[in-house]
Amino acid sequence: MQWSLVIPLKPLARAKSRLADTAAEGVRPGLALAFAQDTVVAALACRAVADVAVVTDDELAGRELAALGARIVPDAPGSGLNAALAHGAAAVREMHPRAAVAALNADLPALRPRELFRVLAAAAEFPRAFLADAAELGTTLLAAAPGHALHPVFGVDSRSRHRASGATELRLTGVDSVRQDVDTGADLRAALALGVGPHTAAVSARLPAAGQ
Fold first, then answer.
1. pLDDT tens string 194-203
2. Model pTM?
3. What are the structural domains of the chain?
């Protein structure tokens, strides 16, 4: 099964505020963009991925991610993460009504195409499925098979919320790169230990706290 991925990205100036202990305010936008760049590059390299749609209103991010091969979808609802994801999924299915659609976090800088392939292959067995994050509280990927609505309920404790919504939790081992999103300095250090993409590596090299 081939998948269309929907990746949400808030304006870079407001991104990654929880990294304040690791990256200065002026650095965080570039770090958030680097995360998204490495996520998009790895996603497009996955052989189960047909295309990637990034939902964002950030002009710089839109230009940079489009140059990598992503389709940019303006965040027309402007009503938060779940509305952006539903809008992105609708935009994908307006062009490809029978598309299998998966929402993927934009902050997976260690993402490995082969691990993403394993997750998407497992998700293809269910109408809706999700993968919990490394902290086992949130969600990094939510998938909907053709003919099924995405119905995202990201936010606080989204692992429980997606389970309650009827989505099947994918319990896979060996897919750490798909689970390791980055919200805090500790998350960034964990991602660096896994091995991040070149964009994140370049920005992180200028962050002394990231390597501690």
1. 999 999 999 9
2. 0.95
3. 3-211 (3.90.550.10)
